[in-house]
Amino acid sequence: MNLTGKHYIGHAVSADSSDTFHAKNPATGEDLPTAFHEATSGEIDRAMSLAAHAFNEFRHTSAERRAAFLEAIAHEVEALGDALLELTHAETGLPMPRLTGERGRATSQARLFAELAREGSWVDARIDLPQPDRQPLPKPDVRSLMQPVGPVVVFGASNFPLAISVIGADTVSALAAGCPVVIKSHPGHPGTCEAVAQAVVKAAEDCGLPEGVFSLVQGKTNAVGMALVEHPKTQAVAFTGSLRGGRALYDVACSRPHPIPFYAEMGSVNPVFVLPGALANGADALASGFVQSLTLGTGQFCTNPGLVFGMKSESFGAFISASAENAAAAAPSTMLHPGIHQAYNAGVVRLRDIAGVKVAGQSSTEADAAKAQAAVYLLETDSETLRQNPALFEEVFGPVSTAVNCQDAGELEEFANKLEGSLTATLHGTPEDLESHKGLIEILETKVGRLIFNGYPTGIEVCHGMHHGGPYPATTHSYFTSIGTRCIYRFVRPVCYQGWPQESLPEELRNDNPRKIWRMVDGKMTKDPVA
Amino acid sequence: MNLTGKHYIGHAVSADSSDTFHAKNPATGEDLPTAFHEATSGEIDRAMSLAAHAFNEFRHTSAERRAAFLEAIAHEVEALGDALLELTHAETGLPMPRLTGERGRATSQARLFAELAREGSWVDARIDLPQPDRQPLPKPDVRSLMQPVGPVVVFGASNFPLAISVIGADTVSALAAGCPVVIKSHPGHPGTCEAVAQAVVKAAEDCGLPEGVFSLVQGKTNAVGMALVEHPKTQAVAFTGSLRGGRALYDVACSRPHPIPFYAEMGSVNPVFVLPGALANGADALASGFVQSLTLGTGQFCTNPGLVFGMKSESFGAFISASAENAAAAAPSTMLHPGIHQAYNAGVVRLRDIAGVKVAGQSSTEADAAKAQAAVYLLETDSETLRQNPALFEEVFGPVSTAVNCQDAGELEEFANKLEGSLTATLHGTPEDLESHKGLIEILETKVGRLIFNGYPTGIEVCHGMHHGGPYPATTHSYFTSIGTRCIYRFVRPVCYQGWPQESLPEELRNDNPRKIWRMVDGKMTKDPVA
């Protein structure tokens, strides 16, 4: 890896400011060697202006060229080899096997969006044919399709330095739609961001795409992010991160003279409900799966299960005991950053110190603070304590979960009603349990984006039906997702052509359907050409 | 019409406040007899709480029941007969033939959404089938579809008292989606709102729908609207009105502890470009059509053409002259409200007094101020004056348009670039003109929601392909439309089911596809059941 610490603004590198910062190796607490420069307002303006300029050409590129670009990105990132993963490991403490898997997810995601662009039906082409003789007024010829909105700013997540960062779903879906992308590099893994950006820049150049279709700016201060969101050429923003950071930037986006959509995915508490039938065959498998999900990525997943509800009983007690044993057996592991590690420890203390909350289990090996290691915690409480302490409903980022002994199914519903919007809810049980807890499920359907049965919320499948979103504070707009192919719809808007001549229409709307896509013609889905 | 001046909150009428207001007949300046009560915060809370309660049942109603409800609404509104139209005429000054047409549009729109609900494919059902043996990890069963978000508040428009008000597209699309609706009655036509609300309440009762599925509250003060937007049970808002009012409420919606989407359609300047080929066969037909569009509904359409660009030439001069003659022949007519009338007159004076702007034509009959009559104005200016006076780019609500003599095609592009986001842009010319003005069209494609060729922006076709939206300030979110079947997507969000048992899935997602809808199965569109 040849890291410069500079910004990639179109085809040029830039470092106008002498303010610099270093990434920290969380496992050693030491600064990594590269000095990264803070972006200046001039550099931000250059990146956004180049993006706006590139948009004029990029939005007219064929689906095939965009697809080839996305495939080239995947190829160039793979070509960086394991040196990339070693760098990411040093910056984030995430283990190599995990990073290998995450790279695979990122590159296959880029290829999925290439396929989506190539297939082409995602544009939601609609054609209403004219009726010149209709009474009392003729019906005009009306056709519409989704078109890209313009330059998109992407703030990647600290916890997925490859799959939700420089080439995450935000970036590849925006590029598939025809939007140039300016990345706000994550200060937790700036070297990874730079290395991946080099790969994207090479792919853009090799594909002959206009300068500015992709830029990356570094910055540790809030000022860089604010300036990107405030910039008049920015047309949409995708963000994955904390509620506090996301809300602050959302407020900026909405307060602009011309507001823009700010799509934030801000994590959530992801409740798990253990229904009676789940424990009929013992608690071991369930407890083992649950603690595996809880500790995945050192608990640093947006979908990490932070609350587990069950009805106080011998079998739910057995589940808690078995989970506690699994937690005890789980070795402490390094968090992404010393700051996150401190916040985790403080969060665990905050929960644990509530009267009525006890530690059911915790990693039996001591966590090494110098290595930013998090111990796994399973806390336990009762319904009255939960009722009195709304803090227990709040997400603590890391491998801690609180098991709640409820008195009856009514309490499950009571607490489901009290939940804030969440990305997921998980239910364990038999199909009969689902039927006999209909009320609970009906509440959860209004609270979350994804309901999981007899599975775990972590490990999100990247596919067409996936929804990674949910009511606020999980996200800022519950219609949109940040994972799965629907996420392209954050970066487009319909454009309608009325009475437009065939030869001047976008090809997706022409009578002969040269792209052979699915279209809605007079309300009916068809791939047929218009007669 | 039996008007009470009260609010319709679920099945009850209510009038807790003694603060009242009267609608004014704009053609006489006189108050109409009914005293309408301001809604109190208690009444607003009751309406929203009942809506939230009704949501639990209403969101589970079958498509057939929702469709029947929409059809009953259309039927009950028609059953009010012409007495409704006479009332609306008295409140708005809009002529009876126009109101007859508008009622037809409103009821056929309700029936279109009934059809949409019944057909059912709008839910965007997606199914990704499991691969339990996939390596390195099994692929889960992932299915998702659009579900209603919850109670929706609707602010109708003053200028379409029937088709964009109590039973406008906002209301019928929200009901089709499964969302209860609370209407903020428009203070310009509160009697019309009450009469239509009576019809909706009757339809809801006849269809056996839960109390609170529909409510209407009256109010003239900003406080009523603010309280509706701020109410914690409100999940989305649809608004049609002014930029100032829309932006103020948008700011409230975004500043809530839990922000909600605020979909505002706030009008725009709707530029018209007259390209050289348009005038090859003379200017008369074009000028006549243009002035007809300009004066439709006394110029009080969101899509009213406020600017007309052409290249200074004998033929464009002839178009201006012919349009001026048509304007002179156009009789002044009553505006919706004395306040709107005053704002129009002030707006015309503001434009006319700019040095370099002249009156090319105006209604030759004098406008009767006591009847709130607006004279039609065609103003004329040159490119340098436009360049120096950004005020000329601003919408003046009413029958005034400014023709701009440009020097060359480069100036057309310059001014297109300077336009704010608009609902529409219109081009007149030959297909060859479109090809030779590609640069202009490419700019307009980034500025507007709908491009019209050789037609007029007013008179919006309600259909599947229609887009009535556009970049800010035309709307607050350019992805969404407020007319056409796509407008249902403002009131839904995806809900995803992972590993869910067949019998507990929403029927749209079950293997056997009992609703026989289009679904995306493993990325392919099909109506087939899943094997």
Structure description:
- The structure is a homodimer of 531-residue chains.
- Chain A is of the alpha/beta class and 531 residues long.
- Chain A folds into two domains: 8-18 and 36-266 and 481-489, Aldehyde Dehydrogenase, Chain A, domain 1 (3-Layer(aba) Sandwich); 271-453, Aldehyde Dehydrogenase, Chain A, domain 2 (3-Layer(aba) Sandwich).
- The first copy, chain A, contains 15 helices and 25 strands.
- Chain A has a seven-stranded mixed sheet, sandwiched between helices. Chain A has a five-stranded mixed sheet with strand order 23-8-7-24-25, with no helix packed on it. The first copy, chain A, has a five-stranded parallel sheet with strand order 11-10-9-12-13, sandwiched between helices.
- In chain A, α8 links the parallel β12 and β13.
- In chain A, α2 (63-79) runs antiparallel to α5 and α13 packs parallel to α15 (438-445).
